[in-house]
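This protein record is not my work; I was only asked to verify it. Would you go through it and say whether the fold makes sense for this chain? Here is the record exactly as it was handed to me.
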Amino acid sequence: MIAPLQPATLAFRDDGTPFSPAYDDVYHSAAGAFAQARHVFIEGNALLARWRDHRQFTILETGFGLGGNFLATWAAWREDVSRCERLHFVSIEKHPFHAQDLRVLYERIVADATIAPLAAQLADAWPMLVPGLHRLEFENGRVVLTIAFGDALELLPKLWLRADAFYLDGFSPAKNPDLWSEPVFKALARVAGDDATLATYTCAGHIRRGLEATGFVCTKTEGFAGKRTMLTGHFAPRWRVRRHEPPLPQPVADKHAIVIGAGMAGCALIERLAARGWRISVIERHTAFAREASGNPAGVFHPLLSRDDSVASRITRAGFLYALGRWGALEQAGLGFARTRSGLLHLAESDDEAHALTEAIATFGYPPEYARGVSAADAQALAQTALMRGGWFYPLGGALDPALLCTALCTMAGERLTWHFGRQAARLARHSDTWEVFDEAGEPIARAPVVIFANARDAARVAGLTHAPTRIVRGQLTRLPAQVAPHLAVPLIGDGYAVPLGENTGLLTGATYEVDDDDRSERAAGHAENLARLAVMLPAARETLASVDSASLSGRVAFRCVTSDRLPMIGSLADEAACARDAAALRGAWPLDLPRAEGLYGAFAFGSRGLVWSSLGAELVAAQIEGEPWPLERDLAESLDPARYLLRSLRQGQAG
């Protein structure tokens, strides 16, 4: 269970230097945050000489603080004509500032005209203060800030990346010893790339000895602003200090990928790959994209609350917030998709549940813009109709048109897309360093070094996976015409959901949940079931709904693909044949131990949460392909690993 965040307190010393009352220490030298960042970290890691040799360059920082080091690095990157193509900056902060406090700080400490506009962009993009990883993009995605809110001792071992440089920054070892401890140094060694460098303001002897014990070679160099010395160093272990090498990009001569399936998952992948310069060949069995569940008239998006902040809740929180950021970028580019802005109301199933989860909101310290408990009276005021009980309100939740979102995502990819509509992928074969996909008639469709399966229930079959069990769930939606549709001011979920489709347009409600049922025809019984659930949620509409002839209604049938643990399959596919051959040796394996199928990835089985999970899933797959820092903690990503069922079979001696 994740501890609630304790935000930083805005305070200054008499000389105007930002100060932390919690640690009784300053955030930077009185000589200036940006001058300190340039001397200690940018020059200490020789960034201008080193990042020019990299297509992408990754920096890991142990304390974000005010963001001065990030802003100075971003400014240096912008000014350097020989800069790397893509800069990743990963940082951890246990006590983040509120966005408004950052604005106040920047107004006081930023005098550099080149940094001021960058500081304004950072403050505007600053994430909601909830635990976990938050991914922010600047410079059209060429500068990426991944900031982890939480305790470094807990989060550092969960980051998965290959660091080219380390900024060891934080309050002094005397004030904050945990950040300068052996577990931290070991965590750095686990993710250090070849010839990774480090720099830090401190030069304490025990810090140097601790770093050297984990594989770093350190040197004292000239300090900043009258401080005699500081430490720089590089990673050069004399013995093996880690079990697994940190991630590297997929070795490809041609940045060309095949995406199988053009629903929400596939379209999100298209946009994320195209943003990194990839060409994408899309294979879709229908004659257009978004023809399965992604073609529903509306879908809802919202967080998932739980009493213990479960794995599913943490993944959904990350996915929800990341999706909001990506959708905002699409809208800024002028691409709309009928997104509601009034929030979403979640009705509790019982008074006990309402009380327990409202307590959980307080316990985890969620900000009110993320979720807040509402009484029955407050819920009715939000919905503008009588309701069965209270629940929770998600101010940033809502509903949107999934097909229009798919259109926006594909529009962003532009000419990088090649479509293969009306072709059913049936099998694939490996030729040297590329994969070729064939249709049911045995005719080739497309060929590329990378293939990503986003084709829901067909994914495991086409990929030849035997340890990726999924099932289908039939869901029938009901569309109520305006003359009988109850008035509802916001989208509503509970036992089912209800989405107002606009003035004089009616209301969408549903959906049924019928496992292993592949009947595509609409059923009057399904419409009746949807009306009955809606009548429970909206008691004022019971009489009207009871008078509706369910056989006269229309709707839509779509199918959800689900796993037994209700989590999607996202990431690199396992080489099942190699795992079977080495089953005995892999019986005690962990996910990173498993042989992987070169160039094969999956993003499927999103169930009813495709809107919330697909953007983050696409970013995770793209990051794995490119060897970038993962946008999600490794333990959470492993909960989504398509090989997780294979791993269980290996551990139980049932594979091979």
Observations:
- The mean pLDDT is 94.
